[in-house]
Amino acid sequence: MIKVGIPRALLYYQYYPMWRTFFEELGAEAIVSPVTSRVMLQEGGARVVADTCLPVKIFIGHVLSLIGNCDFIFIPTIRSIRKNTYNCSKFLGLSAMTRAAVPEAPPILDIMVDVNKGRLRLYQAIYRLGKNFTPYPHKIRQASLDAWRTQLKYRYMMSNRGLTQPQAIAKVLGTSTPESQVESPETKTTIAVIGHPYLLHDDFISHRIIPRLKQANVKVLTPEMLADTTLESAVMKVMGRIQWTCESEIVGAGEHYLRSDVDGVINVMAFGCGPDSLMMDVIRRQATRLRSTPFMNLTIDEHTSEVGIITRLEAFMDMIYRKQRARVAVCG
Ligand code: SF4
């Protein structure tokens, strides 16, 4: 059986169930790299220039960890999934960058996804990808339809049932929910944590911000729990137009949650990320302007210490609890 390696990084969080369904329907086996470790960061970071953003360094580390375990590595080039809206340039060059940085990697399966070029180009790209596994076009068509159905189910679980991406992946694939994602039984306080899923849900990068909040009996809301239409209209309200795909995760989710009844909003961003620095500033200004919901930004890089993150989280939560106590005292 052909083994296709999938790095557990970047777009894995948005599309893994769909990718896995596609490859399995074509008789291949999807092999996912292990969870992120310091060794992966060190090895990945050593292959790229120093100012590359942390998630891309980690992605390269995941590719290195797959060498020897698979026949191909799947690295799609997802340029645009909405008309005139584009992904960060790092995604556009990811397969080329990986080929250059990891020449010993197994052959890379690449597919260009750009809705601006029309459906026909997309279908042709899917057929080219599928032909690595079968010569029969009807099998490729069936695999892509099944994969798309899986993606719709996955998205529904998050936006309609309030699951995070790791929880929804476990549900769709019928595996057990990771322990760090189990909900806390008592929840008196609600915090929205916004940012890219590959920052929020990678416990190594985020220093387990979400599990830590849950352990403190906090209900955590994340961007993927909102419908695409809600996120898009929130971005339009603030920006007037949608330029980057990832604006939904930060500007859209930030604007929505700042105006909802959550007790606080935490934005997690990667040091060295151009889009994040602009989008975080937009949301910080919104938070200052609205003056309704406490807001904190956490910038993470490879030198960020766990103790520093815990201290910031504790200070933020203390401030929220003080505010809640003051409100109770005023209302009697
Ligand atoms: S959006 Fe930022 S963090 Fe994500 S890949 Fe691009 S530069 Fe890196």
What does this structure look like?
The chain is an alpha/beta fold and 332 residues long. The protein folds into 2 domains: 3-158, 3-Layer(aba) Sandwich (Rossmann fold), CATH 3.40.50; 183-331, Rossmann fold, CATH 3.40.50. Helices cover 53% and strands 13% of the residues. The chain contains 15 helices and 10 strands. The strands form 3 sheets. It has a 4-stranded parallel sheet with strand order 2-1-3-5, with helices on one face. Strands 8-7-9-10 form a 4-stranded parallel sheet, sandwiched between helices. The protein is globular. Residues 53, 55-56, 88, 90, 196, 246, 270, 273-276 line the site of iron/sulfur cluster.
Question: In short, what is this structure?
Answer:
The protein is an alpha/beta fold. It has helices spanning 12-25, 38-45, 54-66, 89-92, 94-101, 119-130, 137-161, 165-173, 197-200, 203-206, 209-215, 228-239, 247-258, 274-290, 306-331, and strands at 3-6, 29-32, 72-74, 77-80, 108-109, 112-114, 189-194, 218-221, 264-270, 295-300. Strands 2-1-3-5 form a four-stranded parallel beta sheet, covered by helices on one side.
- The share of residues in helices is 40-55%
**Annotation field: number of helices:** 15
Report on the biggest sheet. Answer: 4 strands, parallel
- Major beta sheet, strand line-up: 2-1-3-5
Counted up, domains total 2
Give helix and strand order, one letter per element, not per position: EHEHHEEHHEEHHHEHHHEHHEHEH
Query: Structural class of the secondary elements?
Result: alpha/beta
The top level CATH class name of the largest domain: Alpha Beta
Name the overall outline.
globular
Rounded mean pLDDT is 91
What is the CATH fold-level name of the largest domain? Rossmann fold
Q: Beta-strand percentage?
A: 5-15%
